[in-house]
């Protein structure tokens, strides 16, 4: 009998399909809310970025004015998340009927779930890359991690904690729109070009010194 072996892609496809179905099942109670919220995140209308930044600014303004402790802030966040986790699926089951869910909406919902899975895979890939770097080149791993943490510590010493958290949240909510409109891709490509030019310039300078 012939030895039938599955390729890595054929082995990954059933696993990816299972992950997708599980994620869709987990988010099924939120799908009526996810679709319009995704439209806002992807800037389907010109005023959506202003709404996102304004909402984040309003929330952080309240936090800045009330100045709650760290424990109080996390407790309030936990309460809000618990309420959302309970109220949204319950209201969705009463307000929206499954018969009103169209094929177009299902495709949009599936596309969002695929992007969420891709984001999770990117995080896993970074984690695996760091693990491989630590195993194969521990000194380089130590320099990279120490440099990254030192940079973050330096930035944290320059900027207030609340302001830094605000800027990070604004950036995170704007990432889907930046990516959708190709702005993020252009920015990353420009950064890569600058880095490559710097590397090539250093290589040429080293060659001229050796000659």
How many structural domains in the coordinates?
Answer: 1
Specify the overall morphology: extended
Rg over C-alpha atoms, rounded to the nearest angstrom: 23 Å
Unreliable segments (pLDDT under 50, ≥5 consecutive)? 1-10
Tell me the total number of β-strands. Answer: 0
Q: Provide mean pLDDT, rounded.
A: 84
Mind describing the biggest β-sheet?
A: none
Class from helix and strand fractions: mainly alpha
Distance between the termini: 64 Å
- Count of helical regions: 8
Strand fraction equals under 5%
**Fraction of residues in helix:** over 70%
Q: What are the salient characteristics of this protein?
A:
211 residues, mainly alpha, 84% helix
Structure in a nutshell:
The protein is mainly alpha-helical. Helices cover 84% and strands 0% of the residues. Helix 5 (103-136) packs across helix 6 (138-158).
Task: Write the SSE topology.
Elements (H helix, E strand, L loop, with lengths): L7 H19 L4 H11 L6 H19 L3 H26 L7 H34 L1 H21 L2 H20 L2 H28 L1
Helix pairs in contact: 1-5, 2-5, 3-7, 5-6
Protein name: RETREG1-3/ARL6IP-like N-terminal reticulon-homology domain-containing protein
Pfam families: RHD_RETREG1-3
Membrane topology: Multi-pass membrane protein
Structure description:
This protein has helices at residues 8-26, 31-41, 48-66, 70-95, 103-136, 138-158, 161-180, 183-210. The protein is mostly helical and 211 residues long. The protein has one domain. Mean pLDDT is 84; it is low at 1-10.
């Amino acid at each position: 009998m012939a030895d039938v072996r599955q390729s890595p892609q054929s082995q990954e496809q059933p696993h990816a399909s299972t992950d997708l179905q599980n994620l869709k099942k987990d988010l099924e109670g939120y799908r009526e809310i996810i679709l319009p919220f995704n439209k806002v995140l992807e800037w389907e209308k010109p005023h959506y970025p202003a709404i996102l930044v304004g909402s984040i600014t309003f929330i952080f303004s309240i936090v800045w004015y009330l100045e709650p402790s760290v424990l109080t802030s996390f407790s309030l966040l936990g309460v809000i998340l618990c309420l959302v986790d309970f109220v949204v699926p319950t209201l969705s089951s009463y307000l929206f009927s499954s018969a009103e869910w169209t094929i177009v909406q299902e495709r949009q919902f599936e596309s969002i779930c695929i992007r969420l899975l891709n984001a999770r895979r990117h995080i896993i890939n970074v984690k695996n890359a760091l693990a491989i770097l630590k195993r194969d080149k521990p000194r380089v791993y130590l320099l990279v991690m120490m440099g990254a943490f030192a940079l973050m510590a330096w930035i944290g010493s320059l900027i207030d904690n609340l302001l830094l958290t605000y800027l990070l949240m604004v950036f995170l909510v704007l990432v889907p729109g930046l990516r959708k409109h190709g702005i993020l891709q252009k920015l990353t490509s420009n950064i890569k070009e600058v880095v490559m030019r710097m590397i090539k310039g250093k290589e040429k300078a080293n060659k001229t010194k050796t000659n």
